[in-house]
Structures are given as C-alpha cells and as structure tokens.
Amino acid sequence: MTDIDPELLERLRHSGLRLDREGRWWHEGQLVEHARLAQALHRWLDRLEDGRHVVRLDERQYAYVEVEDAPYVVRSLSLADDGDVRLLLSDDSEEALDPASLRVRAGNVLYCAVKGGRFEARLSRPAYYTLAGQVEEDGEGFVLALGGRRWPIVSGSR
C-alpha cells in the first residue's frame, strides 16, 4: 500500500458525518436511514486522545464525526429490585449504570458515563422519567437512591 500525503489524508478524514443529540447519524445533511449502517457506525465510534470523536476501522483508518451532544443516548433503562440499573444505549448495547457517574446539566438533562467510562451518554426522556422515581432531594441537592445506597447527582460536566 502506498503512503497517502498526510495533508490529503487529513482532508479526507473530514467525512461529513454527524451524530445528533437523539443518537441519529447524518451524512452531509442526510439522515442515515439504514439501521444496520447506523448500528455499524455506532460500533466503530471511538475517540482520539485529543478528544475528537471518530469512526475507526483500524489504527490508521478513521474519519472525524461531529457530535452534537453526547455520543450515546440512553434509550431506556430497567430497574432491578436489588438496585441494579441496566441501560439500553443508542447502539443497541446494554450495560449497567455507574450511579457515581450521573451528572445533571442545563435543562435538568441527565448524563452518565458509558463504555467503561470512555464515553458519555445523555438520558432520553423515557429513561429520565424511569430513573426520576429513584431521585430524592437531600438538602444539598439531589441524590440517586438505589438498593439502600445513595449517590449524589453532580451538576456540570464530567
């Protein structure tokens, strides 16, 4: 394989891909409607050391992605009697909520860390309302009360 001029490669990496606040993929202003392609793009989502989001095929092959809000959306969640919370993410994967990672931002939007803490996810309205029943005020702010434990919900970015 011949080496590509680094400047040309950098220009080619600007792909026109965008991930909106609802977790939908767009390419050059057109919604990516093919479900399996959108799922693959989510599967390839990564972040460079400088914080920029990319879709990555391997170490050298990646393209930049404009991320409107958080790169993942918590579509729904389920609460277990023992306090375990399972998240269903916009890439159709499931994982446990790290309650200590909850953050609230402007507009009372909740965010949490996902994918081993590498990424952030915004809770959709349905997920927010499901979790809201476990949130209590404690005089200093809000806490998440689950399975006999309490975690403060921090304001601001992570």
Secondary-structure blueprint of this entry?
Elements: H1 6-12, E1 14-19, E2 25-27, E3 30-31, H2 35-43, E4 45-47, E5 53-56, E6 62-67, E7 72-79, E8 85-89, E9 94-96, E10 103-105, E11 109-114, E12 119-123, H3 125-132, E13 135-137, E14 142-146, E15 149-152, E16 154-155
Parallel strand pairs: 1-6, 7-12, 10-16
Antiparallel strand pairs: 1-2, 2-3, 4-5, 5-6, 7-8, 8-9, 10-11, 11-12, 13-14, 14-15
Can you characterise this structure?
With 158 residues, this protein is an alpha+beta fold. It has 2 domains: 6-67, duf1285 like fold, CATH 3.10.540; 72-155, no CATH class. 15% of the residues lie in helices and 43% in strands. It contains 3 helices and 16 strands. The chain has helices spanning 6-12, 35-43, 125-132; strands at residues 14-19, 25-27, 30-31, 45-47, 53-56, 62-67, 72-79, 85-89, 94-96, 103-105, 109-114, 119-123, 135-137, 142-146, 149-152, 154-155. The protein has a 7-stranded mixed sheet. A hairpin with a 4-residue loop joins β11 and β12. It is elongated. The N and C termini lie far apart (41 Å). The model has no long low-confidence stretch (mean pLDDT 88).
Helix content class? 10-25%
Q: Pairing-aware structural class of the strands and helices? A: alpha+beta
- Radius of gyration, in Å, reads 18 Å
Can you give the mean pLDDT?
88
Unreliable sequence segments: none
The major beta sheet can be summarized as: 7 strands, mixed
Oligomer category: single chain
Which strands sit side by side, in order, in the main sheet? 9-8-7-12-11-10-16
Shape: elongated
Query: SSE order, as H and E?
Result: HEEEHEEEEEEEEEHEEEE
**Strand coverage percent:** 35-45%
